[in-house]
Amino acid sequence: MMDMNELIEPFARLVEDICTPAAVRRIEEGGETGAMWSAFVDSGFLDALVPEDAGGAGLSALEAAPLISLLGRHCVPLPVGDTMVARALLAKAGREIPAGPIAIATGTGVTPFARTAAFLVTGSPEAPTAVAAAATQTGVHHDLDGYADVADSEGLRPTSAVVRALLIAGAAGRVLEMTVAYANDRVQFGKPIGRQQAVQQQLAILAEQVIAARIAAAIGVRSGFPARLLDAAIAKHGTSIAAARSAAIAHAMHGAIGISEEYDLQLLTRRLHGWRLADGSESYWAAVLGGARLASTADTSVEFIRAA
Amino acid sequence: MFDKLTLSVLPDEDEALRPALREIIAGAVAAIPLDRRARSWQGFDAAFSRLLGEAGYIGLSLPRKFGGAERSPFTRFVVVEELLSAGAPVAAHWMGDRQSGPLIAHYGTDEQRAFYLPRICRGEALFCIGMSEPGSGSDLANVRTRAARGDDGSWLLNGQKIWTTNAMHSDYMIALVRTSGTSADRQSGLSQLIVDLKSPGITIRPIVDLTGDAHFAEVFFEDVHLPPEALIGEEGQGWKQVTAELAFERSGPERIYSSVVLIDAWTRHLRAVGRLDTATLRLLGSLTAQLAVLREMSIAVTARLVAGESPIVEASLVKDLGTEFEQAVPQLIGDDLGAHPDEPTDNVLYRTLLYLTHVAPSFSLRGGTREVLRGIIARGLGLR
Predict the structure, then answer these.
(1) Is the ipTM of this complex over 0.90?
(2) Most buried of the four, A254, B13, B19, B297, by CB within 10 Å?
(3) Chain B residues inside the 8 Å CB shell of A194
(4) What is the C-alpha radius of gyration for chain B, rounded to an integer number of angstroms?
(5) Chain B partners of A294 at a C-beta cutoff of 8 Å?
(6) Nearest to A302 among B260, B290, B380 (CB)
(7) Nearest residue in B to A301, CA atom
(8) Which of A202, A198, A209 is nearest to A251 (CA)?
């Protein structure tokens, strides 16, 4: 395993430089994506997960996970994480890799980044297919997601769900930092609101949700890509719950300022809600896991979880 | 924030303990009805504790020369997980294993270590913890029980403790008492004393709880004479020692599993009645997924202990989430069973459900209330 900081720091600098909130907003308002995309292409990180013998960096899912979370943290408006995973799957399957942003699409529902993707990858992890992107707008203000309507792509759903879980973990971490900073800065009735016990209690819950999301997402990648079904179920279930709860607490703590368009919190929380629904919400994955639990021969929950 | 809390893996040598341990536990719990197993934490069985001690599963982290195994917190995680998930009665050795033993190892004199630790490890010396007092609750700085020092260095103890778990079955209490000043001095002037509960002047009165059990007790001290060596650690440093002790208490896996025998029993019920509808699968899957994440969070905290840190904030975070889960389980499973009034339900499943429903409020009280823990987390976030 390579030194993780050597890997993460340059990527973090790149994302911070080119995905400023202003740049994110420009793309959400319909601005062109070419310059931002070129910067990601030039960085070489798009092939981070592609095996070395196919010209990539050969990183494991575990090593690449913090990179994908960083994308969530900075609200990157392009399917960079999706493309990293899609390029690896296509390379492993010996398929041609199209140039351009690729989103992973797994059903007829919402596909994140469908509107900034040039291609959608569909099919299964073993037999992925890249097709030209076609998606219907969701009609939600500034939404870059779209309805992709692809058939027979359920096999990609666990892997895609883990990508969403990592994005949620990254965005939720940033939401916590922003909210704690706001609570320390914002003075009401003569003192920072963060000095109030009621606020402190809510921020403690927010922190719990954020850490739980990070651990849940890590469970999703522990066995690599393509993700294992039960790991994906645990990861997406936990992060989807945390996404909704974190967004709710952060907005409550920010008051009305949080829901204004010009304040950056909404860039994060809109994504948290979108990613929560994409590739199966908490109830979808709970049913998958519950079915597996009943079908297993494990006598106790602990035994089942250890074997999952 | 809290970046050090990352996914960790239990070492193979600790995982390897499971089969032999399971055999001992299975033999002991086979005859215990499910609703008694749900009392795991509160299940007091001195014979079982001695059996575990003989097999080397108590005091795992303590020094070898005092009967311990010098193994890591990971080892203890595995042992505690096996005990609690099977609903084994752990109360007899519980306090000694996780609080008093480490405290004595850390702060005790060599004589105290040599006297108490081997007996704790054998499951023979049973400890309880005397912290709360009438009117003080969690506000330990308000402790009024007083030990006055005589000219010969011995102690004269007077006062009262309350909510002391299993005092009536224990051999010793480690009591937090005031040795100087008044309660206006708050934390200063507190010390910890090891009290032999057979000493004259001690009266122990069990407190019956709403399930009919009596785990708690009131303990009265009336002119109790204690030898000079009853003092553990430094005089006047009791507060600092107790804070460290509570960190041992909050960091284990035991804040997740209180309701797990109910989940397992309910799962067997679902199989028996053949219920496979989506709502059922969702509830079962949701509980399983939450348990899986909490377990990994607890292992992540354990890894910080293994690294020699004192992850007080992280442990508080996991404990708060863990007890929320433990408390939700009886409510959710109760709703599920009650939503199927035409399904046959075992008496024992129903008793287990109602037992946990009734005692669930205590899950977030023991070891620091939810609000106190969230205050600790807020401080960790830089808000206080």
Answers:
(1) yes
(2) B297
(3) 378, 383
(4) 21
(5) 267, 270-271, 276, 281, 284
(6) B260
(7) B264
(8) A202
